[in-house]
Write a structure and sequence with these properties.
mainly alpha, globular, about 290 residues
C-alpha cells in the first residue's frame, strides 16, 4: 500500500508558481504614473477651480487680462524664435557631424555633450557676463568697428533668445544627427548622377528624409522653451516675463495657487495639443509611421 502511495505521488505533476500575466505586469508602472503624474495634475486642476473661490474665475482673469495675454505672447514668440534659430543652426551641425571623420566627430560630439553636462545656472551667468554692455561681445564688435556704442543684449528678448538657443541646441542636434546618419549616401550620389544640383539635393532629397529628426527636435525644443524659467528670469528681466516666471510669481510671491494652477494647466493643454498635432500630421514621417 505504501509503495502505491509513493508511486502515485511520483507521477503527480509538480506545481509551479504562477507568474503574473496581462495587466499584472504593468500595474507597478501604472501605479508609478498615477502617483507621480496623474495625481499632481488632478490636484493642480482642483486648486485652479476651487481657490480662492469655486468656479472658473482664475481662467477668466488669466485669459481676459491684457497683461497676462502679453506674457503668453512673449512665451510663444520666444519659443518659436528659439526653435527656428536652433533648427537653422542645428541642421548644419548635425550634417557636419554625420559626414566628418569619426575621430573629429567624436571630439565635436564630446564638446556638444559637455555643454549639456555643465551646470545650467553657470552657463546662464556666463552669458550675462558676455552680453552685458562692458562684456566681451560688445567690446569685440566695437573694436572691429561694427558698432559705435554698446548694444543692449541683456534684460530683453534678444538676450533670452541667445541664451536659450545655446542651451537648446544639443536637444535638436542629437535627434537630427541620429536621423541623418542613417541616410544612405548613395541616395545623394544618385541624385547628383541624375542631374540634381547641390541645392536640389538638399531641398528635395536630404531635407525630406530628415523630417522625422527635425520634427522631433523642434517639438522638444519648443515644448521645453515654453516652460523654461532660469534663463528668461536672468537674461530677460521683469519687463519680458514668460509664463514659467508668472507661475513662479503666483506661487512663491503672491501665494495664489489658484492662478498658478490655472496658468500651469493652460501650459499643459498647449503642450498636449502640440503633441497631438505632431501625431496627427507627422505620423507618416515618423520612423514607425505607415
Amino acid at each position: 500500500m505504501s509503495q502505491q502511495i509513493i508511486a502515485g505521488a511520483a507521477v503527480q505533476p509538480v506545481s509551479r508558481p504562477t507568474r503574473p500575466t496581462g495587466l499584472a505586469w504593468i500595474m507597478p508602472a501604472l501605479a508609478f504614473v498615477a502617483l507621480f503624474f496623474v495625481v499632481p495634475v488632478a490636484l493642480l486642476l482642483l486648486r485652479s477651480v476651487l481657490e480662492p473661490v469655486p468656479g472658473f474665475g482664475n481662467y477668466a482673469e488669466l485669459l481676459g487680462s491684457s497683461t497676462y495675454l502679453r506674457i503668453f505672447f512673449n512665451t510663444f514668440l520666444v519659443s518659436a524664435v528659439v526653435t527656428a534659430v536652433s533648427l537653422a543652426i542645428g541642421f548644419p551641425v548635425a550634417w557636419a557631424l554625420a559626414i566628418m571623420p569619426k575621430k573629429l566627430a567624436a571630439i565635436v560630439f564630446a564638446i556638444l555633450l559637455l555643454s549639456m553636462w555643465t551646470n545650467l545656472l553657470a552657463r546662464t551667468y556666463a552669458w550675462m557676463v558676455l552680453l552685458q554692455r562692458t562684456g566681451v561681445i560688445n567690446k569685440l564688435l566695437m573694436s572691429i568697428g561694427l558698432i559705435d556704442k554698446p548694444l543692449a543684449l541683456v534684460n530683453n528678448l534678444v538676450g533670452v533668445t541667445i541664451g536659450m538657443v545655446y542651451i537648446m541646441l544639443p536637444f535638436i542636434v542629437l535627434p537630427l544627427y541620429g536621423v541623418i546618419r542613417k541616410i544612405d549616401p548613395a541616395i545623394l550620389q544618385a541624385a547628383a548622377l541624375c542631374g540634381a544640383t547641390r541645392w536640389q539635393s538638399l531641398t528635395r532629397v536630404l531635407l525630406p528624409l530628415a523630417v522625422p529628426g527635425m520634427v522631433a527636435g523642434a517639438l522638444m525644443v519648443f515644448v521645453m522653451s515654453l516652460g523654461y524659467f532660469v534663463t528668461p528670469a536672468l537674461l530677460g528681466g521683469t519687463a519680458n516675463m514668460m509664463l514659467a516666471e508668472l507661475i513662479a510669481q503666483f506661487v512663491q510671491s503672491l501665494v495664489n495657487w489658484g492662478m498658478g494652477g490655472a496658468a500651469a494647466l493652460v501650459l499643459l493643454v498647449v503642450t498636449l495639443s502640440l503633441y497631438a498635432v505632431q501625431l496627427r500630421f507627422f505620423r507618416d514621417h515618423s520612423p514607425g509611421g505607415r
